[in-house]
Amino acid sequence: MILSNSRQTGLAKTLAVFAVLLGSSGCTAFLAPRDPFPATPPEPPIESSVPRELEKVTLPRYVIEPPDILLVEGVKLVPKSPHKIETFDALLVRVSGAFPDKPIDDAYSVDADGSINLGPAYGRIKVTGLTLEEAEDEVRRQLSQILTDVDVSISLLQSAGAQAVTGQHLVGPDGRVNLGTYGSAFVAGMTIEEAKAAIEEQLSLKLESPEVFVDVLAYNSKLYYVITQGGGFGDDVTRLPITGNETVLDAVASIGGISQVSSSRMWIARPAPNGVGCEQILPVNWEDISRGAATATNYQLMPGDRLFIAQDRYTAGTATVAKILRPFESIFGFMSLSTSALNQIARFGLSNFSN
């Protein structure tokens, strides 16, 4: 098809604008299809600032994401007043005027029947559903039957509802942690301090000035990947967590070394941060790392990195040839078997062949 001069000029302008846009992004434009498994990885200039074995950097502040596991411990979990005493609450009961040899000054748990057991001399007193003041009046009334000049003080040591807060909490797909009877708090995208504030804010709906301790128990959301090309038999992908100290050598060790179908050609494919800028390809010299103890390409791995280990060319070529020849081998085998059967029929007859 021949374009007119005006159309050619318009097309040239369009291509020029497209080239400027590509150049302004800072990324190399590939106008032709690229080989997905090149013989050697691209060789971009390696910046000296890229972290490596002897020049590691600390990762940015950890941001909580699903499916991290948080450890939450209650430091101060006091229900808002007036608190109604519940089963399995822990109460501190102090009584003046009790028998000298049988004092009442200890912590008592509210049993399943809703009562506290003050001992054989005093018996059980039911307190569930009462406020602390009402419980004091009830205990005073019961003890007044066997004691004189009784004064009772009851305070809450631990609420049974606090048991649902302390422990391990999985950050769900919706970015929230379940706090049991106190609801759930959204913590995805937050630091530990921000998550602590969010959890305490949720707890404050039912508790009086709550205070909790929050830490990350399992770092499950920050990962890197080791992709081993399978020599024509499919690629293996291993998903490993980032702890902030892994290098290329650690990654290879974590998968048990280089497989029989792999070569020593490998590189790191590093995604652009938050999709801004260009992806990085960092060539790795495995021979220098493993045999020479060189650290120049033993890079520190970052979240999202892909360590790609290329296949052995000879093994891949052998597998490709085997795949191509396998159908023909089946056809030739079937034809050979059929020819042999027909020859036996023609030579000995169908009855002998059947026998």
Helix content range:
25-40%
**Beta-strand percentage range:** 15-25%
| Largest sheet descriptor | 5 strands, mixed
Number of domains: 4
SS field, number of helical segments: 7
CATH superfamily descriptor of the largest domain = Outer membrane lipoprotein wza domain like
CATH architecture of the largest domain: Roll
Keywords: Signal
Organism: Bythopirellula goksoeyrii
Domain Polysaccharide export protein N-terminal: 81-156, 168-216
Protein name: Polysaccharide biosynthesis/export protein
Can you describe this structure?
This protein is α+β, with helices and mostly antiparallel strands and 355 residues long. The chain has 4 domains: 69-78 and 162-217, wza like fold (2-Layer Sandwich), CATH 3.30.1950; 90-158, wza like fold; 223-311, Outer membrane lipoprotein wza fold like; 315-354, no CATH class. 28% of the residues lie in helices and 24% in strands. It contains 7 helices and 15 strands. The protein has helices at 5-25, 132-143, 192-203, 248-254, 286-291, 313-348, 350-354, and strands spanning 69-76, 90-96, 104-109, 115-117, 124-126, 151-158, 167-170, 176-178, 184-186, 211-218, 223-228, 236-241, 262-270, 280-285, 306-311. The strands form 5 sheets. It has a 5-stranded mixed beta sheet. The longest helix is centred in the C-terminal third of the chain and has 36 residues, at 313-348.
